[in-house]
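Weekly structure sync, notes
Attendees: PL (lead), two postdocs, one rotation student
Agenda item 3: pending single-chain targets
PL asked that the sequence for the first pending target be pasted directly into the notes so everyone works from the same version. It is reproduced below exactly as submitted, 397 residues in total.
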Amino acid sequence: MSDEYSTRNRDNMLWVIVVAMMVVNVGVLMFSTTYGGNDVETAALSTEVENLGFQLNSAIQEIEALQDEVRISSLPDNTPNLGFIELYNTTRNSVVLIETDIGSGSGWIYDTNGHIITNNHVVENTNWIRVTFQSGTIIQATLVGRDPYSDMAVIKINASDEPLFPLEIGVSADLLVGETVTAIGNPFGLDNTMTAGIVSATGRQMSTINNYAIVDVIQTDAAINPGNSGGPLFNLKGKVVGMNTAIISSTSEFSGISFAIPSDTIQREVEALIENGSYEHPWLGVSGLNLAPQFAEAMGLINTTKGTLVVEILEGGPADIAGILDSSDTVIIGGFTYSIGGDVIIGINGVIMETFYELQVYLTRNTSPGDIVTMNVIRDGEVIEVPFTLGSRPPPT
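Predicted structure, written out during the meeting:
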């Protein structure tokens, strides 16, 4: 069987599954929001919906496997992986040590104009910033822009003071779990240290200022320690796929779990940080939580209904202006009191979103402040559409 034939069959199968998913999604959504009784007919329909849900989950798993297979098969043969030695020697002059009056970290050259990318927490609230190249050259830097919500910052040096070698930025969305990655930085001030590991997971969520989340975070087991913050995470093509940012550890030192801001986020924000000094995130003006089965039942919905339950809205915010309703009732579950009864956001522009995280991911990837979207909402047991103008997330407090 030819490779072309196999690829065509795989693509055809993918489209069949996608169509099946759409049909099942529509069926589940219509049932979940139309039927709420306990008669025999409803029970039978509920069983059928559960079976469809099982088939949907199986289809999703098969699609994910096919997507990985397609990505692997589409990797070009003319871009071979670099060996660790070659990768290090190709990129080491692009990674710098960043020192301030409150600590140190890492950064990397973005362009020949002298812009350097690093973490916000490396340079915020500092009186001075100093950059050291591998050559030993030390240059004073100024802060150009920063985004506390993504823990990202851009600083600048005089471009004529040192030869600059910008790094090429890759596509973090193409990363596969198990793929080898390397980090170069300055752990504990030990300049130009290289470590290696694999992508342990993608699509992680990391908490940031005011309980907002950084989405699409990369988890890796490449050794990251204090001082690595702001340094690049490379794939074996020598492209930056992330920026090393945080670890999980009881000792504040590496214990096998590290996190990196994805390069797609960096690409999305960097020019705004350079031009405007800040980046505006789309904002709903709501606090919400995942609609748990207990909450759904208490609201007269089928317990398999999923979405984001709007708990509270900010007065005068985008959701308030759009007419989104918050939760005015309460229910006691397991000895705890919860607010329920508000709108349940199940999608945007017809794209179904089952969790609050999925909602945040969609907004981050696809929208900007000022965009007008259509919220798909369950209100009083019915699905309605609400025109919604996205706001701009307020500055952190």
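Discussion points:
- Helices lie at 3-34, 40-73, 84-91, 120-123, 263-276, 293-298, 318-322, 356-366.
- Residues 317 and 376 are 19 Å apart (CA to CA).
Action: rotation student to compare against the earlier draft before next sync.
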